[in-house]
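Hello again,

I reread your note about wanting to compare the complex against the isolated chains. To keep things tidy I'm splitting this into two emails, and this first one only covers the full assembly. Below are the input lines as submitted, including protein chains and any nucleic acid or small-molecule components. They are followed by the predicted structure of everything together. The single-chain runs will come separately.
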Amino acid sequence: KAGVTQTPRYLIKTRGQQVTLSCSPISGHRSVSWYQQTPGQGLQFLFEYFSETQRNKGNFPGRFSGRQFSNSRSEMNVSTLELGDSALYLCASSLTRAEAAQYFGPGTRLLVL
Amino acid sequence: AQRVTQPEKLLSVFKGAPVELKCNYSYSGSPELFWYVQYSRQRLQLLLRHISRESIKGFTADLNKGETSFHLKKPFAQEEDSAMYYCALRMNTGFQKLVFGTGTRLLVSP
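Full-complex prediction:
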């Protein structure tokens, strides 16, 4: 069974640009959650998606948005990038909302210059 | 607000020594607690959860509600246990948001 996949793996952008990251959960998993990992703040919850609906959002500005498609794949978008958005973005999938995130992807490392 | 504290950034032990990675939390309700592990150049993965009361790779963790702690223990450390360990809290079942601690790097020397 293929694991959680994230694309792209690495990304370099400049301030003011926007970026879209993709996450494909394990087949059959319907819950996808996103986390931002930085050296200063550690792992912070961004969003949770289930059945194409955002169920919960972390304490991030509106520049951070996301969506989930009918095949459970999820995308997150960051608009008007700032230097502080440089981070590793992780997504995780689980079969249901009842299960805590069990399987994480390798992450997308975003560098904003 | 919910908070998870892992007081040690680095814990260095010798092979065969006991290990205890500390985790304390603050939450007024009844949380679920988890330990996640990230080995070098590998993905973050769930190690164990307090609800299961299981032992994984020789590790155990007991939820102490009185002391609001969920320390991870192993009686005899192995070199392959060297990794980054994160304690995490979930406020209730069906609520995917995890609050993570800052992590403790465990280094097991031969």
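For quick reference: Chain A touches chain B through 27 residues (CB under 8 Å).

B.
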